[in-house]
Amino acid sequence: MNSSASEFLSAIDRRHSGEQSVVLRYRNCLRFEESPADNEDFKGLLERTSIREGLRIFPLLTYRDVEILVLDETSLMHTHTLKSIDGAVSIARCLQRGYRRIAFESGGNTGTALSVYGRRVGLETFLVLPGENLSLLDSAVFEAPTSHLIAVRDRSRVKQVSSELRERDGLPKVPQPEWRLEASMFIGCYLLEAMLEGLQFDILAQTISAAFAPIGIYRVLRRQQPDLGRLPSFLGVQQAPNCPMYRALRGAETDAGEAGSTGRLLTRVMYDASPQSYGTVEELRGVLDETAGDLTLVDSADFGHLLEDEFDGAGILSVLAGAGVNIFVRDGEVVETTGLLALTGTLKEITAGRIAAGSRVLVCLTSGTGRPDGTVVPEAWAEEWEMAG
């Protein structure tokens, strides 16, 4: 990362807009390797893997005298989630290491991005995911013979099955935690540029699992704090049925218990009951401490209020559609809810008086506009695959 605001701004590749690709626009603003030659080589790989990783910010509504802005991380992304950035960065790292075949576990969004971005550059990919999440996928992603899909009936065994597959076939573990943080730093660069140009907000809100996104974002903003002044507080939102980071950092018990099925979850892609195993707890704690931030939980009743309430006479999905964000609804239900949970948590905190009137909140809308057909058939079910092996 460059050391001053002027150096950062001069390193931006203005041939590419943030709405087109933050990977291409900011790749020269970040240092990925100690060796200048290796650093240039990796940036060249990012040019090869990038497809479309676009962001934009727009005002959404004012609620109880709190202005809510949206960081749109869904409608301009190639795979319609912020994980498109992870796809570009992680697949570039795989090319750098000479990997030709890779395996990974996912609830859906990361796995889709790695499958799509990997296929584009000729990698063979193996995605392991909970079988209950098959309806979240688009069958077109797995039409190529090199894009494999293995479903697991017991979601608590997804990581185990993925590990067994890698061990059996000698495949590398991807993505590495640091790659995820690198991906999130591109979002930090987008926000940094906007803030240097006058964007002001008091709170950044996002739905979290392992919290790679806020950690990467604040790594960037922290380095430019002399130019920015006080950093916005971070509000992390977790779903009550699966909130291990909340438990770890707040030392609090919830009455929800652990969801044995992803069907009980508000966002099924965040199925992991132990995301703290990635080693991000302490760095997230640091973000919360230095920004006077907080964590909050949302449940099905909270989410129901978001969808049922009206804002200036319109439902939230209509308000978003008016801003060009068309959340996908199938059979009367929102298919991918992760991004909307951040908005749910924000409204809950405003209603409770924990976000003061007059504040400005930037809500990260990480997903929702994808249109998966939900008809994908896995290549194998893990249980049968293990018996056959």
Characterize the structure shown.
With 389 residues, this protein is an alpha/beta fold. Helices cover 40% and strands 17% of the residues. It is built from 15 helices and 14 strands. The strands form four sheets. The chain has a six-stranded mixed beta sheet with strand order 1-2-13-6-7-8, with helices on both faces. Strands 3-4-5-14 form a four-stranded parallel beta sheet, sandwiched between helices. A two-stranded antiparallel sheet has the order 9-10. Helix 5 (109-120) links the parallel strand 3 (101-105) and strand 4. The longest helix has 20 residues, at 177-196. The model is unreliable at 255-261 (pLDDT under 50).
